[in-house]
Predict the 3D structure of the following.
Amino acid sequence: MDLSRDCQTLAGAVLDDPPHCSLRKLRRILDTLPNRGNPLEQAVARSLLTQAAARISRGVGLDEDLVVARSFVKLTTTSLTGPWRLELQALIEHCITVSRIRNGGAGATSRSTNAHVRRITTFIEIHYPTSTIRLRDAARAVHVSPAHLARILAQHTGTTFLQQLRRRRVSAAQERLAATALTIKEIAAAVGYDNPRQLQRDIKRLVGMTPSALRQSLAAAADAL
């Protein structure tokens, strides 16, 4: 894959394509990006993809969105051994969510749904280390029924509560794999897993390698910098 060409083509199409189309194209580029690469390739990939995401987010009208601002701060300050891919995935999903909501109309129902999505994102950010949180807890926090919250997430993010929760936990686990010598069992407990094997499965599914292989890859990348 020619990453530079694809990102430049995407950036040029932002003004012509609907935002959700550009976001899906960006997500496909990120999904096909190899998990491994030398530090220079990783730096170039992050820079090009972040620039494309910035241009698309402006097209969606998210210049002053706090979630987007926080994501870009993390993307520009996290080391190449950090979870920048997961952060960019979360940013893309947030932009897709907002784009879908705005396309659905600017009425009171749409504004209420947007508020629910923002509040559930905040809830997960605060409570992900707690192993016992469930959909019903999140629903209670945003004052809707569990079934209604599940529908909101499915319609406006294309994900479930559990998928969002696991993505955040894997991101936190990746940070600890890069920065600490904690065992996978200790990391699992710190980020909300009762069962370390579930964390191992989630890392394999979302990152494409085992925790031990990921730690070695992160350490090798850090040594090469």
